[in-house]
Amino acid sequence: MAVDHYENFPVASLLLPARLRPAVAAIYVFARSADDFADEGDLPAAERLRLLNDYRSELERIEQGATTDHPVFLRLRPHIEKHQLPLALFRDLLDAFAQDVVKTRYANFYELMDYCRRSANPVGRLLLHLFGAATPDNLRRSDAICSALQLVNHWQDVGVDASKPVPRIYLPQDDMARFNVTEESVLRRVTIADFRTLLRFQVDRARALMNSGARLGHDLPGRIGLEIRTIVAGGLRILDKIEAVDYDVFNRRPVLGAFDWPRILIGALRP
What we know:
CATH class of the largest domain: Mainly Alpha
Oligomer: single chain
Largest sheet: none
Distance between the termini: 20 Å
Number of domains: 2
Strand content: under 5%
Structural class: mainly alpha
CATH architecture of the largest domain: Orthogonal Bundle
Number of helices: 14
Helix content: 55-70%
Shape: globular
């Protein structure tokens, strides 16, 4: 599990029951391809939005019972119908990807969490629906984990996002002002003391959010519980590694390596 892009999604993980791996893989292909429309290549914004709108049209065809010849939806549709997966969750993902095309700054943490609600939380909710475990308490804790993973990805990738052709800054602007961090210093990828203090604050907030949902991995049985515990442990490990580089994510982007896996697995297996 890499806390990066849609690799957060447990793609047909061996930890998941074999009967659900095709559904998980089909959802992943949908999410990853749509995310790539927003992020990859050099297409103009209008073309990216058109491609995402084509996916919305395909969801409408499913809702209306119309046929499709789109390969992504030919693969996905049987699992939506078999497991009664809410189409609203797929639409939320598309809304978030479209937002990435047009929105590059966030005024406050509320705005950022609204983005996480649509860009990350649907993934966990879809998994819970697949497992027949989408109770209100489980959904709430899953949302906490998924939003925290999205925040981990943002803080891991502050430098990557600042270096894009159209730079993005996910750090809330009111927090930047509070800690005296300017947009210019982020775009120049300068790790000043105030930036370290700001990122420490964001890391602590992401860790608290992750821990608030972590009990879900212990309350759900079997493989799904182990899968969630592994994801949580991996996300927390990335936060530890951000701290270990003294928050200098511009020059030392934290990633999971081979030597991190024993610690992650030990954390996942701990009662």
